Each structure stands twice: as C-alpha cells, then as structure tokens.
Amino acid sequence: MLPTSTSTFPQYAQKFCNQVDAALDELTSYGQGCPDPLRDAIRHIVLAPGKRLRPTLVLMAAEVCGECNHVSLAAACAVEMIHTYSLIHDDLPAMDDDDLRRGRPTCHLVFGEATAILAGDALLAQAFEVLAGCGAEPSVVSNCCLELAQAAGACALVGGQADDLAAASTAADLELLESIHARKTGAMFRVSLRIGALVGGASDEQYQRLDTYGEKLGLAFQITDDLLDLSGNESNLGKRTGKDDEHQKLTFPGLLGVKESERRAAQLVDEACQALGPFGERAQGLEMLARYVLERTT
Ligand code: GRG
Which of 116, 119, 129, 293 is deepest in the core (most CB within 10 A)? Predict the structure, then answer.
C-alpha cells in the first residue's frame, strides 16, 4: 500500500527497511573460510541501525517502474554494502578518524584498524557478488554492475572522498564543494535510483526522471548532512557532530550560511519531486522520502 500522508510514510518505509535488514543478516552470515573476527566486524556496522535510505531508494524505484521483488532486494543490498564499506573506511584514523557510527563505536575501535580495512574490502567485493547473482537478465545485471562500479570508483565516491580530504582548509569555492558532493554523496544516491530503474524495467524516460530525482536528492541530503553536523543531536544521529568545523571542512553552511543552505536544500527537494511528475500517485513514497530528507533529525 502506498503512503497517503507523511504520517503513514514511516510504516511504509519500514517495510523496505525490514526486508533489507533480514537480507543483509543472511548475506553476512558467511560460511567456512570467513574468520570470526572479520564476520563480527562486518556485522557490527552492517547490522547496526542505519537509515537504509539508499537500498530503500532502489526498492522504491523498482516499485514505481514495475515490481519490487527478490531481484531488486539483492540490488538494494549491493548498494548498501558499498555504502557501508565507505562508512567503515571513512571512519579510519587516516580519514575522518571517528569513534561513533550508527550509534556504535566505530569498526576499527572495536576490531582494530587492519580488520576494519578488511571488513570494508570484503563488503566492496561482496556487493558485486550479490549484484552479479541477483537473478536479473544478463544485460540488466551487466548494466547494474557497470553503474555501481562507476558510482563507487575513482571519478565518483572515491574521487569525491579524495578531493574532500584535500579540500580541508582550502579557500571557499562553491563549484568545488558541489563537485565533491556530487561524487562523494550524490553518486551513491543517483546509482540507487538508476539500479532500481534498471531492475524494475524502466523506460528510457522513467530512467532519466529517476536519475534527475536522485541527483537533486543526493545534493539536498548532503546539505542537510552539513546542517546536522552543525546543529544536530549526536544521540539521534548516532555519530559525532561538529566534525566539519574540527577538520575545517568545506561545507554548505560554511560557504552560504544556514538560511541559504536550508533554502537550497528545500529547492532541490522540490525539483526532485517535480521530476517524478509523470509517475503520478505511484511516486508518492519517493516524494515523501524526499520531504523526509529535508526534515530529518537522524
Ligand atoms: C572511504 C571511499 C570512501 C568514501 C567515504 C561515506 C563517505 C565517503 C563519507 C562519510 C562522511 C559523510 C558525512 C558523508 C556525507 C553523507 C553521508 C554519506 C552520510 C552518511 O550516510 P547516512 O546518513 O548513513 O545515510 P546511515 O548510517 O544512515 O546509512
């Protein structure tokens, strides 16, 4: 059942999160060959309470185009695995050096740096194993693997992270900031919609519209992330706040001020929702998810 109001949205979204949680639990049980500390390190962060936004986007995109089934669920888990690997590596001392993630002590603090690096490596590889075996037609599988590899690669997630680390303490530059976030955060949002569209059997126009929605939503999400780092609540967020200031990061509120950042995020969410026009009522879930991103406190 589609949500009819923002009050019924959490229940609707919970259905997707529960499916993803159960599938990730099974996928990270691992058989012989996986050492116990590695399995425990992976599960420590994968099964911690994340928002599951990206896999939910995969499932919702598949649903608005066709149906949400075991194929889209596998694709959703693949995206969440890449995202989780990036969080584990981002928390390492060589990167953001964090001690709290998803309400738990970070992976390297509990299991040591070497095991945390290996946990991320294993998730990165497993994402492609899961996607390659998702059961979609071979051409769809191959396109999905290509899209995910590009989104996770040197010109997107990893490149954005590299530039973000290099940009700390550099002069304010909106173009650079938007380019960093389009890659570091935006690419994974965008690919979630693209992969959901591909496994859902989208037409070219549906694919383009979902891609535009993902692009706008990804940037809006990053702006709200910057705002929450400034004034959010650590126990709600399950991660430290004030890190951007501490690391002298280039941020939207730092560059544009809080009010203008809020205005931009709201405008991007409106534009994301406009892109959904032709889907009509079927896209209500995606529209509410976009509104949630704007209002979120977690
Ligand atoms: C190490 C290759 C590599 C990349 C790291 C994930 C990332 C890139 C950096 C994390 C730091 C950060 C604040 C990024 C901005 C947005 C972001 C990805 C936030 C975390 O995503 P959420 O809030 O996390 O959706 P949950 O835990 O809910 O899944």
Answer: 119
